[in-house]
Amino acid sequence: MNYIDSVQNNRVKNFAKLKEKKYREEMKSFLVEGEHLIEEALKEHLVKILFTLHGTHPFTLDENIEVVQASEAVMAKLSSTSSAAEYIAVCKYMPHQLPKGKRIMVLDDVQDPGNVGTIIRSALSFGFSGVVLSKNGVDIYNEKLIRSTQGAIFHFPIIRCDITSKLVELKEDGYYIVGTSLQNGKPLSTIEEHEKMVLIVGNEGSGVSQEVLDLTDVNAFIEMVNFESLNVGVAAGIMMYKFRGNK
Amino acid sequence: MNYIDSVQNNRVKNFAKLKEKKYREEMKSFLVEGEHLIEEALKEHLVKILFTLHGTHPFTLDENIEVVQASEAVMAKLSSTSSAAEYIAVCKYMPHQLPKGKRIMVLDDVQDPGNVGTIIRSALSFGFSGVVLSKNGVDIYNEKLIRSTQGAIFHFPIIRCDITSKLVELKEDGYYIVGTSLQNGKPLSTIEEHEKMVLIVGNEGSGVSQEVLDLTDVNAFIEMVNFESLNVGVAAGIMMYKFRGNK
What is the ipTM of this complex? Predict the structure, then answer.
């Protein structure tokens, strides 16, 4: 097993760059930290290199995974959290294909990684076949996003693309497109279930963009007693529960 | 207008302690930061002292509110965020009474301030009359909690108490008590609406405690397609939407 002591090591300097989106894109790789998340990433064969602080680890690894022992300083340099990590894995990007299931969740410029992570957990729970993120929203490989999904993200199709052209495509494929809008929307409880559905929630501040609303079959609003804005993760959860798959 | 330059000033040292729960309890006061939240606190007459960085402010203040200009160092000492605040208010504790409305949300040891904040926003939105927090959960005046409610917390009855004795009391008052539990629970969609209802969600890791489940009339689970744990804020939101007030 290799041992890397110095934070000046070229590979370490390179991998530490994966904390930035720009370099993740370049290397098509990202970092995963902590036993539980690495365990989940291993199930999908995403791990390429495992850094371990003590030279030992609890994982069952494929032969092609490189294991490297690293000093505390190196682990700290690779880590995104303030406490020293015992295990950090360099992982390759996930395959980006959206299966043609019956329920698809679309996020139009949702910015908070915690909100996106929460929505991904709900989408998996409620039998959605995938989540589509707009290009201007949070990065899929954002470390906080991965943590907030508790690993669900590794087992679930998530793509990032131009959502207007994706919606046109889904519409042609026979999906019923449900946007969310407080203006000119219909109460959620009156929206009928369809065989194939796309649900859309939007940005924390400004909601779903007009460009996207122009492409929907119907827009829903969640009935409230007092006018308050709901958290977007809660709004998405309520809608996905109502239209959950395989009822 | 008084001007305080030094972080060694006794009042400043005293107020900075309000970042800790222990001292908030002692002084029955808490800090609120930023224009929007202070505006919301003012509506409920909670503000006692306003610190302003430039000596000016955009608020309409009652005569009894003291305004103090403070140096950047003082503002930084009072602030909970990394960026320098322009306005910080010292506020008095809110009145703690639970009105006898028809819908009450109970949180059994929910720990994350963001989750509690999200639930408070949903409770207000869905016409709940108040939220009850258990003693072991997060503090009502936690700065992150206040921020995540976006000020809703000031306009909404929230109490913190021993929830088992509170539940006994509510039951005697005729409330139908709905817990949440994956074991021995009934599907949420089969739970019938009652005139007066209490809904309970639990700790992020361990759910609702057995002690509390022993007091419920029924326990619900949210129907999922894949077994995943939902975020507690999402779970609470789905339940409150179903049983929202004044439909």
Answer: 0.86
